[in-house]
Structure formats: structure tokens, C-alpha cells
Amino acid sequence: MDDTKDVYMRDTLFLEQVGKRKEPTRYIIDDTLDIYAVENYYKVYVAIPAEEEERFTMKSLVGHLRFEPEYLMFQPDNKRGGILNMMEYLEADKKDVVVFGDDYNDMDMFHSDWLSIAMGNGCQALKEKADYVTDTNVNDGIKKACEHFGWI
């Protein structure tokens, strides 16, 4: 299945509960969709208000984000695996890796093998895991971190 703009669903319940997504979307309603036969899931949207989020006791097992107050987006990420594959391909030392992140979907790439920098606007859990916390994304946080470490 394509995850660029297509959202597949068996019915319109999500749309009725939270409305249309803000990003460009093509909704594909297929009442015969067998969710167990789908080989790869790229994203899963769950209609749940922020104040009820604690009901998901195992949400930390999969990268998730809340862009809108009405729903959570689960997106299994393997950013760390992608970084390791790239460094292997480049025959480069993983100690040279620097990652920047700001939310729960970045947790898996924050690792002791390299330098992990959290943005000032990031979630608290990521900041606690970071080697360094810089300024916010809208206040030149990446540039300021690069200056702090003497890279520019």
C-alpha cells in the first residue's frame, strides 16, 4: 500500500470521529479490506482525544505522534537501522553520527553509539535521553548546536 497520500479504511468511522486530515489525503473506503492480509503498515491513525491517551498502555512500543488533538498517528520507524545501514555502506565510523530529534518517533535513533541532540521544543522523554539539548527548531536550534560543538 502507498503511504504518500492514500489512507485506506474499511468505513468512514474515523472521518466521522475526527474529520479529515489536514495534509493532502485521498481516502480509499473499502469495506472488503482485510487488515490482517495487509503485508506492510506504514502508518496507523487512532481516533482518541489527548485527554484519553493514557488508555494506550503499550503505545511506547511503536513510534507515535500527536499532530492533532483528535488522533494519534503510529508510525513504526527504524531510523537507527537506517543510520547503521548508511554508515555501513559508506564504510564510516558510527561514532561520527550526529542525530537531531524532537519527538517520540525519534527515540529509536537516540543511541549511545553516537551523539544525540534533542531540540528545545522536543518531548521530555527525548530530552532526557539526549546527550545535549539545544534551542527550539524555530529558534535556530540546529545551527546553535553546531556552533556549540565547533562544527561551524
What does this protein structure show overall?
There is one protein chain. The longest helix is centred in the middle third of the chain and has 12 residues, at 79-90. The protein has 152 residues and is an alpha/beta fold. It is globular, with a radius of gyration of 18 Å. The chain has 4 helices and 8 strands, in the order E-H-E-E-E-E-H-E-E-H-E-H. Strand 1 (6-9), helix 1 (13-18) and strand 2 (26-29) form a beta-alpha-beta unit.
Compose a concise summary of this entry.
This protein is of the alpha/beta class.
Keywords:
three-stranded antiparallel beta sheet; single chain; 20% strand; 152 residues
Order of helices and strands: EHEEEEHEEHEH
Side by side, the strands of the main sheet go 3-5-4
Question: In this structure, how is the largest beta sheet organized?
Answer: 3 strands, antiparallel
Oligomeric state as shown: single chain
Percent in strands:
15-25%
The first-to-last residue Cα distance is 42 Å
Q: What general outline do the C-alpha atoms trace?
A: globular
Mean pLDDT: 88
Helix content: 10-25%
* Total strands: 8
